[in-house]
């Protein structure tokens, strides 16, 4: 990964590339109250919070930069997701959400020692889900799934899972009895070469079809074998999810695109892919407005 042009301190892990500065709008007719359901914020003050070990060092990506990106694409709402590199210190994520509590929500990282009072405080500050990251250092542990699920269920939260579903032969039996909804990052984060008949992917589809699971139509560049958008080889994965249960899908930009294995795309190129995945405007509205409002508690009045 290349370093961005900003002045960065020396780190044990290379600094990620910055997002593409090209903010031309997409060709999509974005509906009012559209929500980007997956983004991160990285600040100068957050550099002291970076955990060791970690899988990447982020480029600086401020809330102001993020909201400028949202505006350029005709979107007004966003979900700030706690990145693995900050561990369980959610202060940067929550500070961002507090700046616009009617427009932003948070997905935070907690562990089995997080108290009811701490969860209550997180909820008041805009948190609506807890992220379990089983891919990158600093993200969370599988053995804490049950305990965390039981704790956050009292607040109506979901668990957001960053996992490669193809690595979990027991995915359905592990997750279906948890007392919360489940949100799968990046369409299950499975390399497309494994195909939509992969047992783990099929089990994720079963959870989504039953209404227990949700998927984020995001991170196509993390699944693809191609180098540039629109990453056509991801289409079968997206289509399988849409055909399964469009009421359980949301869209996310994954801005500022940390640690991606391909050249940095434009925001417009990523949003344009929705026209192929969701050709009907009613489906676009459902995924960009209705479903996020339900999942994250936005007011559509």
Automatic annotation (TrEMBL):
InterPro entries the UniProt entry points to: Amidohydro-rel, Aro_Compnd_Degr_Hydrolases, Metal_Hydrolase
Domain of life from the UniProt record: Bacteria
Pfam families (UniProt xref): Amidohydro_2
Gene3D superfamilies: Metal-dependent hydrolases (3.20.20.140)
GO MF terms held by the record: hydrolase activity
SUPFAM superfamilies (UniProt xref): Metallo-dependent hydrolases
Domain Amidohydrolase-related, first and last residues per copy: 35-298
Official protein name in the record: GntR family transcriptional regulator
Species of the source: Motiliproteus coralliicola
